[in-house]
Amino acid sequence: MRIALDAMGGDNAPEEIVKGAVEAVKVNNYDILLVGKREVLEAELGKHQKTERITIIHAPEVVEMSEAPALALRRKKGTSIGIASELVKKGEADALVSAGSTGAQLAAALLIIGRIKGIQRPGIITLFPGLNKPTVLLDVGANTDVSPENLFQFAVMGGIYAEKILARQNPTIGLLNNGTEENKGNDLTKASYKLFRESNLNFIGNIEARDLPKGVADVLVCDGFVGNMILKMAEGLGNTIFQLLKKEVESSFKAKIGGLLLKPGLKNIKAMMDYTEYGGAPLLGVKGISIICHGSSNAYAIANAIKMAALCVEQEVVGQIEKWIQVNDSRGESN
Fold first, then answer.
1. Are residues 50 and 141 in the same domain?
2. Close Cβ partners of 81 (under 8 Å, ≥ 6 residues apart)
3. What is the CATH number of the domain that holds 197?
4. What is the pLDDT of residues 220-257, one digit of tens each?
5. pTM confidence score
6. Number of domains in the chain
7. What is the extent of the structural domain holding 174?
8. pLDDT value, residue 333
Protein backbone atom coordinates (compact mmCIF):
# COMPACT_ATOMS: atom_id res chain seq x y z
CA MET A 1 0.00 0.00 0.00
CA ARG A 2 1.57 3.27 -1.15
CA ILE A 3 0.09 6.50 0.15
CA ALA A 4 1.15 9.88 -1.29
CA LEU A 5 1.13 12.42 1.54
CA ASP A 6 1.19 16.16 0.80
CA ALA A 7 3.71 17.12 3.48
CA MET A 8 3.54 20.87 2.83
CA GLY A 9 -0.24 21.30 3.16
CA GLY A 10 -1.94 22.39 6.39
CA ASP A 11 -1.55 24.80 9.28
CA ASN A 12 0.84 22.44 11.08
CA ALA A 13 2.94 21.38 8.08
CA PRO A 14 5.44 19.92 7.83
CA GLU A 15 6.05 18.95 11.48
CA GLU A 16 2.72 17.28 12.27
CA ILE A 17 2.38 15.82 8.78
CA VAL A 18 5.73 14.08 8.99
CA LYS A 19 5.03 12.94 12.55
CA GLY A 20 1.70 11.49 11.39
CA ALA A 21 3.45 9.57 8.62
CA VAL A 22 5.96 8.15 11.08
CA GLU A 23 3.17 7.09 13.46
CA ALA A 24 1.24 5.46 10.60
CA VAL A 25 4.08 3.24 9.41
CA LYS A 26 4.83 2.08 12.96
CA VAL A 27 1.58 0.16 13.18
CA ASN A 28 0.54 -0.44 9.56
CA ASN A 29 2.05 -2.07 6.50
CA TYR A 30 2.15 1.13 4.45
CA ASP A 31 4.75 2.84 2.33
CA ILE A 32 4.47 6.62 2.56
CA LEU A 33 5.55 8.86 -0.30
CA LEU A 34 6.22 12.14 1.49
CA VAL A 35 5.80 14.92 -1.09
CA GLY A 36 7.37 18.33 -0.46
CA LYS A 37 10.61 20.29 -0.23
CA ARG A 38 13.34 17.70 0.17
CA GLU A 39 15.66 19.63 2.49
CA VAL A 40 12.80 20.58 4.81
CA LEU A 41 11.43 17.04 4.97
CA GLU A 42 14.86 15.49 5.49
CA ALA A 43 15.34 17.77 8.50
CA GLU A 44 11.93 16.79 9.91
CA LEU A 45 12.46 13.08 9.37
CA GLY A 46 15.79 13.40 11.12
CA LYS A 47 13.91 14.10 14.34
CA HIS A 48 12.40 10.62 14.27
CA GLN A 49 13.70 7.06 14.27
CA LYS A 50 14.82 6.12 10.78
CA THR A 51 12.41 4.05 8.70
CA GLU A 52 12.70 2.69 5.19
CA ARG A 53 8.93 2.86 4.73
CA ILE A 54 8.95 6.62 4.12
CA THR A 55 10.33 8.02 0.85
CA ILE A 56 10.68 11.71 0.05
CA ILE A 57 9.42 12.92 -3.33
CA HIS A 58 10.77 16.39 -4.02
CA ALA A 59 8.22 19.13 -4.77
CA PRO A 60 9.70 22.64 -4.68
CA GLU A 61 6.43 24.59 -4.72
CA VAL A 62 3.22 24.92 -2.71
CA VAL A 63 -0.25 26.21 -3.56
CA GLU A 64 -0.81 29.02 -1.08
CA MET A 65 -4.23 29.47 0.56
CA SER A 66 -4.55 32.93 -1.02
CA GLU A 67 -4.02 31.64 -4.58
CA ALA A 68 -6.69 30.66 -7.09
CA PRO A 69 -6.25 26.84 -7.03
CA ALA A 70 -6.71 25.96 -10.71
CA LEU A 71 -4.58 28.89 -11.88
CA ALA A 72 -1.83 28.07 -9.38
CA LEU A 73 -1.72 24.43 -10.54
CA ARG A 74 -1.37 25.53 -14.15
CA ARG A 75 1.36 28.08 -13.39
CA LYS A 76 3.27 26.00 -10.86
CA LYS A 77 4.27 22.57 -12.14
CA GLY A 78 6.11 21.51 -8.99
CA THR A 79 3.51 21.87 -6.24
CA SER A 80 3.27 19.22 -3.55
CA ILE A 81 -0.44 18.61 -4.18
CA GLY A 82 0.11 18.51 -7.95
CA ILE A 83 2.96 16.01 -7.81
CA ALA A 84 1.12 13.86 -5.24
CA SER A 85 -1.89 13.78 -7.59
CA GLU A 86 0.36 12.80 -10.50
CA LEU A 87 1.64 9.86 -8.45
CA VAL A 88 -1.94 8.62 -8.05
CA LYS A 89 -2.75 9.16 -11.73
CA LYS A 90 0.34 7.20 -12.84
CA GLY A 91 -0.38 4.35 -10.42
CA GLU A 92 2.77 5.06 -8.42
CA ALA A 93 0.62 5.74 -5.35
CA ASP A 94 -2.63 4.05 -4.34
CA ALA A 95 -4.10 7.08 -2.61
CA LEU A 96 -3.51 10.72 -1.70
CA VAL A 97 -3.83 12.49 1.66
CA SER A 98 -3.58 16.27 2.15
CA ALA A 99 -4.41 18.86 4.82
CA GLY A 100 -3.69 21.74 2.46
CA SER A 101 -6.02 23.95 0.45
CA THR A 102 -9.28 22.08 -0.21
CA GLY A 103 -9.73 24.09 -3.39
CA ALA A 104 -6.29 23.05 -4.63
CA GLN A 105 -6.96 19.39 -3.82
CA LEU A 106 -10.29 19.52 -5.64
CA ALA A 107 -8.68 21.20 -8.65
CA ALA A 108 -5.82 18.68 -8.71
CA ALA A 109 -8.29 15.79 -8.46
CA LEU A 110 -10.27 17.07 -11.44
CA LEU A 111 -7.41 18.37 -13.61
CA ILE A 112 -4.85 15.63 -12.90
CA ILE A 113 -6.49 12.48 -11.53
CA GLY A 114 -9.75 13.00 -13.44
CA ARG A 115 -13.38 12.08 -12.81
CA ILE A 116 -14.76 8.57 -13.08
CA LYS A 117 -16.44 8.29 -16.46
CA GLY A 118 -20.16 8.85 -15.99
CA ILE A 119 -19.86 10.76 -12.71
CA GLN A 120 -20.90 14.36 -13.30
CA ARG A 121 -19.54 15.91 -10.08
CA PRO A 122 -17.31 14.56 -7.32
CA GLY A 123 -18.54 14.91 -3.75
CA ILE A 124 -16.84 15.27 -0.38
CA ILE A 125 -18.20 13.08 2.37
CA THR A 126 -17.88 13.23 6.12
CA LEU A 127 -19.04 11.02 8.98
CA PHE A 128 -21.44 13.04 11.11
CA PRO A 129 -21.62 11.74 14.71
CA GLY A 130 -24.99 10.51 15.93
CA LEU A 131 -26.73 8.97 18.94
CA ASN A 132 -26.37 5.39 17.69
CA LYS A 133 -24.14 5.60 14.63
CA PRO A 134 -22.45 8.16 12.38
CA THR A 135 -24.22 9.30 9.22
CA VAL A 136 -22.47 9.63 5.86
CA LEU A 137 -23.13 13.25 4.88
CA LEU A 138 -22.38 14.58 1.40
CA ASP A 139 -21.63 16.85 -0.32
CA VAL A 140 -19.89 18.99 2.31
CA GLY A 141 -18.06 21.46 0.13
CA ALA A 142 -17.18 20.41 -3.41
CA ASN A 143 -20.28 21.76 -5.21
CA THR A 144 -22.37 24.79 -4.25
CA ASP A 145 -24.79 24.51 -7.18
CA VAL A 146 -26.05 21.09 -8.18
CA SER A 147 -28.79 19.31 -10.14
CA PRO A 148 -31.09 16.49 -8.99
CA GLU A 149 -28.91 14.08 -11.03
CA ASN A 150 -25.84 15.29 -9.10
CA LEU A 151 -27.58 14.65 -5.78
CA PHE A 152 -28.63 11.21 -6.98
CA GLN A 153 -25.05 10.28 -7.84
CA PHE A 154 -23.93 11.58 -4.43
CA ALA A 155 -26.47 9.22 -2.88
CA VAL A 156 -25.13 6.28 -4.89
CA MET A 157 -21.50 7.01 -3.97
CA GLY A 158 -22.42 7.62 -0.33
CA GLY A 159 -24.30 4.32 -0.27
CA ILE A 160 -21.30 2.45 -1.67
CA TYR A 161 -19.07 4.06 0.97
CA ALA A 162 -21.50 3.20 3.77
CA GLU A 163 -21.68 -0.42 2.60
CA LYS A 164 -17.97 -0.99 1.98
CA ILE A 165 -16.39 1.10 4.75
CA LEU A 166 -19.05 1.09 7.47
CA ALA A 167 -20.49 -2.38 6.71
CA ARG A 168 -24.06 -1.06 6.37
CA GLN A 169 -26.13 -3.55 4.39
CA ASN A 170 -28.57 -1.93 1.94
CA PRO A 171 -27.91 1.51 3.46
CA THR A 172 -30.83 3.87 3.91
CA ILE A 173 -30.69 7.14 1.96
CA GLY A 174 -32.23 10.43 3.10
CA LEU A 175 -32.55 13.82 1.40
CA LEU A 176 -31.77 16.81 3.62
CA ASN A 177 -34.72 19.20 3.54
CA ASN A 178 -36.63 21.76 5.61
CA GLY A 179 -39.51 19.36 6.14
CA THR A 180 -40.37 15.69 5.81
CA GLU A 181 -43.31 16.11 3.43
CA GLU A 182 -42.81 15.29 -0.25
CA ASN A 183 -43.83 18.78 -1.38
CA LYS A 184 -41.43 20.59 0.99
CA GLY A 185 -38.28 22.42 -0.06
CA ASN A 186 -37.08 24.28 -3.12
CA ASP A 187 -37.19 23.24 -6.77
CA LEU A 188 -33.98 21.22 -6.35
CA THR A 189 -35.15 19.10 -3.42
CA LYS A 190 -38.64 18.58 -4.89
CA ALA A 191 -37.23 17.29 -8.19
CA SER A 192 -34.62 15.24 -6.31
CA TYR A 193 -37.30 13.62 -4.13
CA LYS A 194 -39.15 12.40 -7.20
CA LEU A 195 -35.93 11.08 -8.74
CA PHE A 196 -34.89 9.28 -5.54
CA ARG A 197 -38.34 7.77 -4.99
CA GLU A 198 -38.46 6.31 -8.51
CA SER A 199 -34.95 4.81 -8.27
CA ASN A 200 -33.72 1.52 -6.82
CA LEU A 201 -32.14 3.24 -3.83
CA ASN A 202 -33.29 2.42 -0.30
CA PHE A 203 -34.76 5.92 -0.04
CA ILE A 204 -36.52 6.79 3.22
CA GLY A 205 -37.59 10.33 2.31
CA ASN A 206 -36.81 13.87 3.43
CA ILE A 207 -34.84 14.34 6.64
CA GLU A 208 -34.79 17.58 8.64
CA ALA A 209 -31.47 18.93 9.91
CA ARG A 210 -32.53 18.46 13.53
CA ASP A 211 -32.74 14.70 12.92
CA LEU A 212 -29.23 14.42 11.46
CA PRO A 213 -27.60 13.85 14.90
CA LYS A 214 -30.11 11.07 15.60
CA GLY A 215 -28.62 8.94 12.83
CA VAL A 216 -31.99 8.20 11.22
CA ALA A 217 -30.37 7.54 7.82
CA ASP A 218 -27.15 5.81 6.85
CA VAL A 219 -26.55 8.41 4.12
CA LEU A 220 -27.85 11.98 3.97
CA VAL A 221 -27.52 13.99 0.76
CA CYS A 222 -27.38 17.75 0.16
CA ASP A 223 -25.53 20.30 -1.95
CA GLY A 224 -22.05 21.38 -0.93
CA PHE A 225 -23.11 24.83 0.28
CA VAL A 226 -25.64 23.45 2.74
CA GLY A 227 -23.39 20.56 3.75
CA ASN A 228 -20.42 22.79 4.49
CA MET A 229 -22.58 25.17 6.54
CA ILE A 230 -23.94 22.27 8.60
CA LEU A 231 -20.47 20.88 9.17
CA LYS A 232 -19.01 24.19 10.36
CA MET A 233 -22.08 24.97 12.48
CA ALA A 234 -21.82 21.58 14.17
CA GLU A 235 -18.09 22.04 14.78
CA GLY A 236 -18.63 25.47 16.33
CA LEU A 237 -21.61 24.34 18.39
CA GLY A 238 -19.74 21.33 19.73
CA ASN A 239 -16.81 23.50 20.83
CA THR A 240 -19.17 26.03 22.42
CA ILE A 241 -21.06 23.38 24.38
CA PHE A 242 -17.86 21.94 25.82
CA GLN A 243 -16.61 25.43 26.73
CA LEU A 244 -19.92 26.15 28.51
CA LEU A 245 -19.70 22.84 30.37
CA LYS A 246 -16.16 23.63 31.43
CA LYS A 247 -17.23 27.07 32.65
CA GLU A 248 -20.08 25.60 34.69
CA VAL A 249 -17.92 22.85 36.18
CA GLU A 250 -15.41 25.45 37.38
CA SER A 251 -18.15 27.66 38.90
CA SER A 252 -18.34 25.93 42.29
CA PHE A 253 -16.86 23.16 44.43
CA LYS A 254 -19.99 20.97 44.04
CA ALA A 255 -19.88 21.44 40.28
CA LYS A 256 -16.23 20.40 40.23
CA ILE A 257 -17.06 17.18 42.08
CA GLY A 258 -19.86 16.46 39.61
CA GLY A 259 -17.53 17.26 36.74
CA LEU A 260 -15.00 14.72 38.00
CA LEU A 261 -17.71 12.05 38.09
CA LEU A 262 -18.86 12.93 34.57
CA LYS A 263 -15.37 13.30 33.12
CA PRO A 264 -15.06 9.76 31.62
CA GLY A 265 -18.42 10.06 29.87
CA LEU A 266 -17.71 13.57 28.61
CA LYS A 267 -14.35 12.38 27.32
CA ASN A 268 -16.07 9.63 25.31
CA ILE A 269 -18.58 12.11 23.86
CA LYS A 270 -15.80 14.49 22.88
CA ALA A 271 -13.97 11.66 21.11
CA MET A 272 -17.13 10.84 19.14
CA MET A 273 -17.28 14.45 17.90
CA ASP A 274 -13.55 14.83 17.25
CA TYR A 275 -12.67 15.01 13.54
CA THR A 276 -9.18 13.70 14.27
CA GLU A 277 -10.68 10.28 15.03
CA TYR A 278 -11.79 9.97 11.39
CA GLY A 279 -8.75 11.71 9.93
CA GLY A 280 -10.19 13.05 6.72
CA ALA A 281 -13.05 13.24 4.26
CA PRO A 282 -12.85 11.16 1.06
CA LEU A 283 -13.51 12.90 -2.25
CA LEU A 284 -15.67 10.43 -4.16
CA GLY A 285 -16.16 10.42 -7.91
CA VAL A 286 -12.56 10.73 -9.07
CA LYS A 287 -10.35 7.94 -10.46
CA GLY A 288 -8.33 7.56 -7.30
CA ILE A 289 -8.62 7.85 -3.52
CA SER A 290 -8.16 11.44 -2.36
CA ILE A 291 -8.58 12.19 1.36
CA ILE A 292 -9.19 15.81 2.35
CA CYS A 293 -8.04 16.61 5.89
CA HIS A 294 -8.87 19.52 8.18
CA GLY A 295 -6.39 22.38 7.76
CA SER A 296 -5.43 22.22 11.44
CA SER A 297 -4.87 18.45 11.45
CA ASN A 298 -2.33 17.13 13.94
CA ALA A 299 -0.23 13.99 13.66
CA TYR A 300 -3.02 11.81 15.09
CA ALA A 301 -5.48 13.06 12.47
CA ILE A 302 -2.97 12.53 9.65
CA ALA A 303 -2.23 8.97 10.79
CA ASN A 304 -5.97 8.22 10.85
CA ALA A 305 -6.43 9.83 7.42
CA ILE A 306 -3.73 7.53 6.04
CA LYS A 307 -5.57 4.59 7.58
CA MET A 308 -8.83 5.81 5.99
CA ALA A 309 -7.14 6.10 2.59
CA ALA A 310 -5.80 2.56 2.84
CA LEU A 311 -9.21 1.19 3.84
CA CYS A 312 -10.84 2.87 0.82
CA VAL A 313 -8.22 1.26 -1.43
CA GLU A 314 -8.63 -2.16 0.19
CA GLN A 315 -12.42 -2.03 -0.20
CA GLU A 316 -12.09 -0.91 -3.85
CA VAL A 317 -14.42 2.07 -3.39
CA VAL A 318 -13.44 3.59 -6.75
CA GLY A 319 -13.92 0.25 -8.52
CA GLN A 320 -17.35 -0.19 -6.92
CA ILE A 321 -18.47 3.23 -8.19
CA GLU A 322 -17.15 2.39 -11.66
CA LYS A 323 -19.00 -0.92 -11.55
CA TRP A 324 -22.25 0.84 -10.67
CA ILE A 325 -21.76 3.24 -13.59
CA GLN A 326 -21.22 0.33 -15.97
CA VAL A 327 -24.53 -1.34 -15.11
CA ASN A 328 -26.69 1.72 -14.45
CA ASP A 329 -27.36 5.01 -16.12
CA SER A 330 -27.23 8.35 -14.27
CA ARG A 331 -30.72 7.77 -12.82
CA GLY A 332 -29.97 4.35 -11.39
CA GLU A 333 -32.03 2.39 -13.92
CA SER A 334 -30.65 -0.75 -15.58
CA ASN A 335 -29.36 -0.30 -19.13
1. no
2. 6, 9, 63, 73, 98, 100, 101, 104, 105, 108
3. 3.40.718.10
4. 999 999 999 998 898 888 888 878 888 888 888 888 88
5. 0.87
6. 2
7. 125-276
8. 43
